[in-house]
TrEMBL record, chain A:
Molecular function GO labels: formylmethanofuran dehydrogenase activity; transition metal ion binding
Species for this entry: Desulfosporosinus lacus DSM 15449
Residue ranges of every copy of the Glutamate synthase alpha subunit C-terminal domain listed in the record: 80-213
Entries under Gene3D superfamilies matching the protein: Glutamate synthase, alpha subunit, C-terminal domain
Gene Ontology BP term (one): methanogenesis
Protein name per the record: Formylmethanofuran dehydrogenase, subunit C
Automatic annotation (TrEMBL), chain B:
Biological process annotations from GO: formaldehyde catabolic process; one-carbon metabolic process
Molecular-function GO terms, alphabetical: formylmethanofuran-tetrahydromethanopterin N-formyltransferase activity
EC class of the enzyme, as a word: transferase
Catalyzed reactions per annotation: N-formylmethanofuran + 5,6,7,8-tetrahydromethanopterin + H(+) = N(5)-formyl-5,6,7,8-tetrahydromethanopterin + methanofuran
A single GO cellular-component term on record: cytoplasm
UniProt keyword list: Acyltransferase, Cytoplasm, One-carbon metabolism, Transferase
Residue ranges of every copy of the Formylmethanofuran: tetrahydromethanopterin formyltransferase Ftr C-terminal domain listed in the record: 152-300
Formylmethanofuran: tetrahydromethanopterin formyltransferase Ftr N-terminal domain location: 1-149
Subcellular location: Cytoplasm
Family assignment from sequence similarity: Belongs to the FTR family.
Protein name, as recorded: Formylmethanofuran--tetrahydromethanopterin formyltransferase
Length: 275, 310
């Protein structure tokens, strides 16, 4: 028997709240009182989940499911390190949401702030709105960012999406900011709309797939136009998640560029060619 | 026992433990998927001389890349033998076929947690053909290798699945002449090819040169099955044929499970006895001393599902 845990926001706080205690892992098996007493931090003051949320719990089928209702843009680190279950945020989410996530499903029905899924290792994050900067990226001083899992964004994403990503998949249906896939180590990044300046700058390996032709750095060189077999599989994989990529879809052709030549040239940028 | 008036001898087919694997070969269209499948399953009738036994099951229902595909089964005597031959065959016969890709066909017939199942590397070894320009891609939970080739990329899955399977299920069709024996065998093959999880590795599914273990020549480990050769019936002591038997055809079956082989044999025999001129159905065995798996003809035709024993 699973659990369905509702956290309903009483009022949007004026100051940011560190809420890494809100994960299915942490809430599982606890009664409403214990959940209310779990700590959150506002500045240097330790507070409780119950100070901000009404808590209701009921039995349900399936895995542990946690549903947050309200605009949670001021709450940081929700779902940080979660390893299983389902976490649904019915509004916006704050910084570092899903950072270090290892498994399970995290759904954000509104917008997500910066550092979404930073250093993520597994699981799936879906964002119905837009995401901020540094999606799946590495924190300052770290050499590797996201190392597994999947981040799917229906809207736009900010700068340095997938920076230093090591493995996994980030797909953005809309536009992305500057330095998409900066210093990408491996993995796959998809951006359906426009991209800012210098996509793939200093990338080592990995794949960046773009729906629109960007202005590429001169350290990227054109190879050919072809239909990569793996695209069909990627398309099908995401379609299975309800995330449909470029119209015209599965049989698309791409221009293939190799780069960044300043870092070995083993990476690739594929640019979709409309038929 | 008689079926449609044809004697079914009270004997059994003796089969052996093998290792089996399934490939899904895809390409830009059905023609090239079939070409790749024909090439990769070529010259694979018997482990005696080919090292592997292989066959095409048929078009894939659903392929990983959404393109046209063919499922092929392979059986070898050992894990090492299968791994080695698959590496060679995929490298020489699938990768070389235009637009092809090669995936683990999976083994849904076997429970996923069965200890009979194991993985073996293919893509992770083949990737070196890329000479440093290869790249991998993880999609879902599986890793694939992309090897640059002259028409684009050859995509091959990193690991494939093998299972402890069975080879050497068989039955023999004894008839009054070649025409009847062959028509009967063809009818059996058509019926048996409707089943997945089994292959008939010989040409057209039929073998006319059945073999026995050993030979009067020391350098040969197998030789013609003299007991079923009509042209020397009078010279062979204990020939299995009588004066009315003028031709014999054998059908050999490899399968992923005992149950699948038993079902295939039963379906094949039932089709075979419908052809006029068929006089007897029998099976090849070594007295039960060599093979672990015994398929009793009477039992498998009784349809109870207990016709096979190991």
């Amino acid at each position: 028997m699973g659990e369905l845990i509702h956290l309903t926001l009483k009022a949007e706080p004026a100051l940011p709240v560190e809420a890494e205690s809100i994960t299915p892992d942490n809430l599982r098996g606890k009664n409403e009182e214990k959940i209310k007493n779990l700590p959150v931090w506002c500045g240097n003051a330790q507070e409780k989940i119950g100070d901000y949320f009404e808590v209701e719990k009921e039995q349900s089928a399936g895995e542990t499911r946690v549903v947050l209702t309200g605009e949670c843009a001021q709450f940081k680190r929700i779902g940080q390190g979660m390893s299983f279950g389902e976490l649904v945020i019915e509004g916006a989410a704050g910084f570092h949401t899903g950072a270090l996530m290892r498994g399970g499903s995290l759904q954000i029905k509104g917008d997500a702030a910066d550092w979404l899924g930073a250093h993520m290792e597994g699981g799936r994050i879906t964002v119905a709105g837009n995401a901020g900067h540094f999606v799946g990226a590495a924190y300052r001083g770290k050499t590797q960012g996201m190392s597994g899992g999947m981040i799917l964004i229906e809207g736009n994403a900010g700068q340095m999406t997938g920076s230093r990503m090591r493995r996994g998949l980030i797909a953005v249906k809309g536009n992305c900011g500057d330095a998409l896939g900066f210093k990408l180590l491996a993995g796959t990044i998809f951006a359906g709309g426009r991209t800012g300046r210098h996509p793939g700058a200093n990338m080592l390996r990995g794949t960046i797939i773009l729906g629109e032709q960007p202005e590429l750095l001169s350290s990227f060189y054109y190879n050919c136009t072809y239909q990569p077999v793996f695209w069909n599989m990627l398309y099908a994989e995401l379609a299975g998640c309800g995330f449909f990529l470029l119209p015209g879809g599965q049989d698309a052709s791409f221009k293939r560029y190799s780069g960044d030549a300043l870092n070995g040239g083993k990476g690739e940028i594929l640019v979709w060619q409309s038929t | 026992m008689r079926l449609n008036g044809v004697e079914i001898e009270n004997t059994f087919a003796e089969a052996f433990g093998m290792r089996g694997t399934r490939l899904t070969v895809t390409a830009i269209n059905e023609t090239w998927a079939e070409q790749a499948a024909l090439a990769v399953t070529g010259f694979a009738t018997s482990v005696i001389g080919c090292g592997v036994e292989a066959g095409i099951e048929g078009p894939s229902g659903k392929t990983p890349d959404g393109r046209a595909g063919m499922d092929c089964l392979f059986f070898a005597a050992s894990r090492e033998g299968l791994e080695s031959t698959m590496l060679n065959r995929i490298g020489q016969a699938v990768m070389t076929a235009p637009t092809s890709a090669c995936f683990d066909g999976g083994l849904p017939e076997i429970p996923a947690d069965s200890d009979k199942i194991s993985k073996y590397p293919i893509g992770s070894k083949m990737r070196f053909f890329g000479d440093g320009y290869q790249a991998s891609k993880i999609i879902g939970t599986k890793r694939y290798w992309r090897i640059p080739v002259m028409d684009g990329e050859f995509m091959v899955q990193e690991e494939f699945t093998m299972v402890k399977a069975i080879g050497g299920g068989n039955f023999l069709i004894v008839a009054d002449g070649v025409e009847a024996a062959l028509k009967s065998a063809e009818a059996a093959v058509r019926k048996m090819k409707e089943l997945r999880g089994v292959i008939l590795p010989f040409p057209g599914g039929v073998v006319r040169s059945g073999s026995k273990v050993g030979s009067q020549y020391k350098f040969l480990t197998a030789s013609t099955n003299v007991f079923y050769c009509p042209t020397i019936r009078g010279r062979v002591e204990n020939s299995a044929l009588n004066a009315a038997n003028n031709a014999v055809m054998e059908i050999v079956i490899d399968g992923l499970t005992e149950e699948l082989i038993g079902k295939a044999m039963a379906a094949g025999i039932r089709a075979a006895v419908q052809v006029p001129g068929v006089q007897k159905i029998t099976a090849g065995n070594y007295g039960g001393k060599l093979g672990k798996y015994h398929f009793h003809l009477h039992k498998i035709l009784a349809g109870g599902g207990n016709g096979w024993e190991s």
